[in-house]
Design a protein that fits this description.
The structure is a homodimer of 197-residue chains.
Chain A lengths: L13 H4 L8 H14 L4 E4 L4 E7 L7 E7 L7 E5 L2 E10 L4 E3 L5 H12 L3 E8 L4 E6 H10 L4 E3 H7 L1 E2 L10 H9 L10
Parallel strand pairs in A: 5-7
Antiparallel strand pairs in A: 1-4, 2-3, 4-5, 6-9, 7-8, 8-10
């Protein structure tokens, strides 16, 4: 092999060859996708800000107010909501680094209750779960997850359940987590398993 | 008139006689109302957390992570959203201390754009505006506000416009800002001015 004149080998790294996400995490993937949907006027879906309990704020002259003491609060709802094709959309997104199961402790009980409540009122509610070890991102209708949660005699969901119950969410450069495709199939296709028609 | 033995008159103040809110502001009134709706399972509507840019976090041993430097960010959406009777609900709430008009600068241009976008996708979108001087709280369909904003050759909306365009939101102890009543009238009553039917 012929080296470069400076004696170094070609500067390619593993990162440069892995297509697509290059170290982006699920949250930034979803945010990029949502911005794409928003720009194309396909849907209006946003991540909610991280809830913070603000304790102390400084108001320096001639500059922006500075928060000097604050704490993270437990979220009382899911992270994402908005509107698509006239329907209220609500979901939570989780990255799971385990290979065999998804632990229920990754969801707060009030998030489960929240998903159950919005379903009762007519929402399209679901979870997006990425198994980082397999680089697979699943769409799971909230109803399925809640039913498993309520009936299962265990503290986690086996990995195989996701393949049977959920759908792999397609990914592209512009839409790294293109979950609207799955929503179209499940909720807006005649005969779609969750559609009204 | 007979004074109290200490020579003072009876200790009643204006605040003590004003029924209902006693110094609560619009935000806490809406939050109380939303909690009532949630408890009765009438609707699931929440205020979004204040958006904050977190710069520095301390992780002291044996105690909660402490944010030691953070700044307020401009919100890119409205403050409230959720679901009611299958419809996506989205609104912004503002208190106005002026007597004659509501200045447009109280709304950010991207909040106007956001309301316009969710309307296109089928939302029930509106503003709640309280004129504190009159203790009147108005429900204004977003469409009306946006049309005025786009066509008006002025920087504010005259107070009288609210009486003509909006509805006064009923108030009670348990539901200080009972805006679902107005939504029922406008959007879910046959012949309601904004209903589909």
């Amino acid at each position: 092999m012929v080296n470069y004149p400076n004696g170094k080998k070609g500067g390619w790294t593993a990162a440069a060859t892995s297509a697509g996400r290059r170290g982006m995490n699920l949250e930034s993937d979803i945010n990029r996708t949502n911005i794409f949907y928003l720009d194309r006027d396909q849907a209006v879906i946003h991540k909610k800000p991280t809830p913070v309990q603000i304790v102390k704020v400084d108001y320096p002259q001639r500059s922006a107010a500075k928060i000097t003491e604050a704490y993270f609060k437990l979220p009382s709802t899911t992270d994402y909501n908005g509107i698509y094709r006239g329907r209220y959309i609500d979901f939570e997104a989780k990255e799971c680094s385990l290979k065999t199961s998804f632990p229920f402790k990754m969801l707060h009980p009030h998030q489960i209750r929240h998903l159950d409540a919005v379903l009762r009122h007519g929402a399209i509610a679901f979870l997006i779960v990425r198994f980082t070890e397999y680089d697979e991102t699943y769409f799971i209708p909230a109803r399925n997850m809640i039913d498993f949660y309520n009936t299962a005699d265990r503290h986690s969901i086996p990995y195989e359940w996701f393949g049977k119950t959920g759908r792999i969410i397609p990914s592209s450069f512009l839409k790294p987590v293109d979950y609207l495709q799955i929503i179209d199939e499940l909720y807006f296709t005649e005969g779609g398993s969750l559609s009204d028609g």
